[in-house]
Write a structure and sequence with these properties.
The protein is of the alpha+beta class. It has one domain. The protein contains 1 helix and 3 strands, in the order E-H-E-E. The chain has a 3-stranded antiparallel beta sheet, covered by helices on one side.
């Protein structure tokens, strides 16, 4: 999932991802996840940060 905004609001998108997986009869393989940072937090305003959020199912 592409998360746009502050890192503090990422948990909301993880809940959406978990609900989507549940609706598709998928289960997380664990509680680990990956974050791919598309923006540099030192150069971009927090509300414009872009991060790809992933977890294994």
């Amino acid at each position: 999932m592409l998360h746009i905004g502050s890192y503090d609001s990422e948990p909301e998108n993880f809940i959406k991802m978990e609900n989507f997986a549940y609706d598709k009869n998928l289960r997380r393989q664990g509680q680990t996840h990956r974050e791919i940072y598309l923006s540099d937090a030192r150069k971009v305003e927090p509300e414009k940060l872009k991060t790809v959020l992933r977890f294994k199912v």
